[in-house]
Design brief:
The structure is a single chain. By secondary structure, this protein is an alpha/beta fold. Helices cover 52% and strands 20% of the residues. The protein is built from 29 helices and 25 strands. It has an 8-stranded mixed β-barrel with strand order 17-18-20-21-22-23-24-25, surrounded by 4 helices. Strands 6-5-9-8-7 form a 5-stranded antiparallel β-sheet. It has a 5-stranded mixed β-sheet with strand order 11-12-10-15-16, with helices on both faces. Helix 19 runs parallel beside helix 21 (674-685). The N and C termini lie far apart (126 Å).
């Protein structure tokens, strides 16, 4: 039974407080009305008093003014200020001259502030002094009085205070009388009845548990007692029937709970306000709590400590379901079963996919929803894995070729319907194969991942980036413009951005690498565009970009098709040439400047085409690099060179001090097995390492300084010489040059050609390179020497050796053998 509250919350106290406040307020209100009437009467009386004072003083003041008697005027003003309210009096003539004046300070009192609020603090009254009744009517003046209103109102304030006090006393006395009467007639009987009700035992209710004084048997108190007695008896009957029903419900509930707890799915009943009415063991295990802690809480409240976001999503779903339920009832329909799936985190933070079925029902006379939910995470993850394998590149996480082309096909249709143009680009990493072959697939994979991540950062989110091949990325840029020219401009801007951003250094575990890339662009849609046709067009444009040396982009045009066909035919011929050993070597003598003696030769690759005859490298070298045949062709060059050297050495044509120079391509040099291949060829062909000189370019060196130095040192330790080819055309980094363990510096023909021209700076550059090589103790070879003035210039500047048409064009093996035999005497003296 609930006990009574604090005294201030009881009805008796509230009534007492209310009656006293109202009584006092009424008494004070009446007093205020009476004071207001008194204030008006007092103000009128003061006006009359001030007028009488002024009128009484006018005759003597007029006489003093007429007779110009200052003493009489002084007596007049002194008499006036004797009054408590008068603070100043002045008698002045018609010219404003003061005949007599007197002032006294105003008296301060506690009522001064109140006076200021009700009236002005000072009041001034003026009375004219006219001599109209005298013989000389021209004599006039003025009597001016100042009154202290605070002193004038002091009697009023005294009366008002007495009125307020009397009103307060009257109100309190009236209130106490009313309180006493109310307590005796109402609150005391009610309090007694309350004490009786509090003692009633719900389990043992008598026929009439509450009685009242006979005086109240027929009034409202008696009626209240009868009503409570009837309610108590009815309550006893309901409690008895409820106890029986409760026992039956508990038995049924126990059986149902046993069944529910054996089911692996989560089963719970949710009220209309989303509170949990009942749940099984699987539900409690999901939230890591006992059932008592879950019952009565909203489902979203259970989710909130785990994830606020999921809790908000759960609440939104339930609000939507509740609205659908309300709409169905307004149409007198029954809402069918609802199925949904959502991501929820369990008590330990694992995010699980939950699939649920919701069934509207009634429980204990109120609307609720039965929910049966089960964990489908494993099934969804398995399906996602299947989808990932089908549509996602596992290395980079990007869309794969299939998904990229699907999106391209969709956007072609969408662009055609919207009269818009987009662009599809193929990005190819020019130096990827070299890195992959030289440093292993792990380095190549790491580079691809970094490139894909960087592309995501620099391109807009609307642009689709997919990996469509080994080192090729497909870039789908939709909605670039309403005209092909606008789309072309947008595509070129994207391509320029990509080429610029990919020139940055990529830090891999194998070292730091700079890569070049090429891009082919195809616009869409045209009349018969398909995903495959746009892909082929972009691939054709890419081919053209790579044909021009890479690090550029090209837009597809119809004229490219013929060029691509020719390039494809060239690649087929190259494949056949490698298979049928159509490649051969020509040799250009390496000559000493001082005495014009052959000291070696450089191997130069030629293609002995069965139909076209001898084909020079400028026709097919780029195709070898782009088609990926360079490594195979480079190995073939080494076999041809070492084999020919072996033959000449066995024939005694090749002196021991001469050297055969072989050009090494970047793909060869960065092949992981490059050093092992050279060592193996030296053993197989039984040639002296000191007879071999390998030429590499500056650009090759700069791709990986540390790796380059390690490979050079490994072969130089066996006696193999190294030459830095085409010096001055690449990076020309002096800081790295002094560290590289090379033996020879080869000056590019571009510096030699114009060195004899007086207007050219090449002579100065040539001299500087020769001096630099001397300082670094490197041998110098000049390429492209075609005239005697060129040779004279080299001799004058201390160049060691040269090659060029001045001495001999590159010739075949037999012709070079004859050249060696004709100079046998010179060779033996080397």
């Amino acid at each position: 039974m609930t006990t009574s509250g604090p005294a201030r919350q009881r009805l008796a106290w509230k009534l007492t407080k209310t009656i006293l406040v109202l009584s006092v307020a009424l008494g004070m209100l009446l007093s205020v009305v009476q004071i207001a009437l008194d204030y008006r009467q007092h103000s009128e009386a003061l006006d009359q008093l001030f007028a009488r004072i002024a009128n009484t003083a006018v005759p003597p003041a007029r006489r003093a003014l007429q007779t110009l008697d200052p003493q009489l005027a002084e007596e007049v003003v002194e008499g006036l200020v004797l009054h408590d309210a008068v603070t100043a009096a002045y008698v002045t003539d018609e010219f404003g001259e003061t005949l007599a004046a007197i002032e006294k300070p105003a008296k301060s009192s506690a009522t001064s502030l109140l006076t200021g609020l009700l009236n002005e603090p000072q009041r001034q009254i003026s009375a004219p002094l006219s001599a109209a009744n005298l013989d000389d009517a021209s004599v006039t003046g003025e009597l001016r009085l100042e009154f202290d209103m605070n002193q004038a109102f002091l009697p009023f304030f005294a009366r008002a205070g007495r009125m307020l006090g009397l009103g307060l006393i009257k109100g309190l006395v009236l209130g106490l009388i009313l309180v006493y009467a109310l307590r005796r007639l109402l609150t005391s009987p009610l309090h007694k009845m309350t004490r009786t009700i509090r003692t009633v035992d719900p389990d043992n209710i008598s026929r009439a548990p509450v009685t009242v004084d006979p005086r109240h048997a027929n009034d409202e108190l008696g009626e209240l007692a009868d009503t409570f007695n009837a309610f108590a008896i009815r309550t006893r009957e309901l409690l008895e029937s409820h106890a029986i029903a409760e026992r039956n419900v508990k038995e049924s509930s126990s059986q149902l709970k046993l069944i529910m707890d054996t089911v692996p799915h989560m089963i719970f009943a949710r009220a209309a306000d989303d509170t949990i009415l009942q749940c099984n063991r699987a539900f409690t295990e999901f939230y890591g709590n006992n059932m008592d802690a879950l019952i009565g809480k909203r489902h979203s409240e259970l989710q909130a400590p785990i994830s606020e976001t999921e809790a908000e999503q759960l609440k939104a779903r339930y609000d939507h379901y509740r609205q659908k339920l309300k709409d169905a009832r307004s149409e007198n329909k029954r809402l069918p079963r609802q199925y949904e799936k959502m991501l929820l985190s369990n008590a330990i933070g694992d995010r699980r996919w939950i699939e649920s079925m919701q069934l509207p029902m009634e429980s204990l006379g109120r609307d609720c929803t039965l929910v049966i939910a089960h964990d489908v995470t494993d099934r969804i993850e398995a399906q996602d894995k299947i989808d990932q394998l089908a549509f996602e590149d596992l290395l980079t996480g990007m869309p794969n070729r299939r998904l990229t082309l699907d999106r391209l096909g969709f956007d072609i249709t969408r662009s055609r319907n919207n009269a818009a143009y987009g662009a599809f680009m193929i990005l190819d990493l020019d130096s990827f194969k070299t890195i992959n072959d030289s440093f292993g697939h792990s380095a190549g994979d790491e580079l691809l991942v970094q490139v894909s991540r960087h592309l995501r950062q620099i391109l807009h989110e609307e642009v689709t980036i997919g990996r469509i091949g080994g080192d090729e990325f497909g870039i789908l840029a939709p909605d670039l413009g309403k005209q092909p020219s606008d789309a072309a401009t947008g595509a070129e801007f994207i391509a320029q951005t990509i080429l610029r951003e990919l020139k940055r250094a990529f830090s891999l575990q194998a070292g730091e690498f700079h890569i070049n890339s090429s891009i082919g662009i195809a616009l869409y849609p045209d009349a018969d565009s398909t995903a495959e046709s746009v892909l082929r067009s972009a691939d054709t444009a890419l081919f053209q970009a790579k044909q021009q040396g890479g690090s550029v982009y090209r837009m597809f045009t119809e004229s490219m098709k013929l060029a691509v066909r020719q390039q494809l035919d060239l690649e087929l011929d190259l494949r056949r040439a490698l298979k049928d050993s159509e490649f051969c070597l020509h040799f250009q003598p390496l000559v000493r400047v001082t005495d014009n003696v052959i000291i070696g030769a450089e191997c130069l690759l030629r293609w002995n085409h069965p139909n076209k005859g001898m084909v020079y490298p400028d026709v097919f070298i780029t195709a070898l690099e782009q088609s990926g045949f360079m490594l195979e062709a480079g190995d073939a060059v080494i076999d041809l060179a070492f084999g020919q050297l072996q033959q000449w050495q066995r024939e005694g044509v090749w002196p021991q001090t001469a050297r055969l120079s072989v050009n090494i391509s970047p793909s060869q040099f960065f092949d992981a097995s490059f050093v092992e291949k050279i060592i193996q060829r030296l053993r197989v062909y039984d040639v002296q390492p000191t007879s071999i000189e390998l030429e590499i370019t500056e650009s090759t060196v700069m791709q990986d300084i540390r790796g380059t130095m390690q490979k050079i040192e490994a072969l130089r330790s066996m006696g193999v010489r190294f030459a830095l080819d085409d010096f001055g055309t690449g990076y020309s980094s002096l800081s790295y040059l002094k560290l590289l363990p090379v033996d020879v510096l080869k000056i590019d023909r571009s510096f030699v050609k114009d060195a004899i021209d007086a207007t050219s700076n090449d002579a100065a550059i040539l001299q500087t390179i020769i001096r630099l090589a001397r300082h670094l103790k490197l041998e110098v070879v000049a390429e492209g020497v075609e005239t005697q003035p060129h040779l004279d210039l080299l001799r004058d500047n201390g160049c060691d050796n040269y090659q060029g048409y001045l001495y001999s064009r590159p010739v075949g093996a037999q012709a070079f053998r004859e050249l060696l035999l004709s100079r046998r005497d010179a060779l033996t003296s080397v």
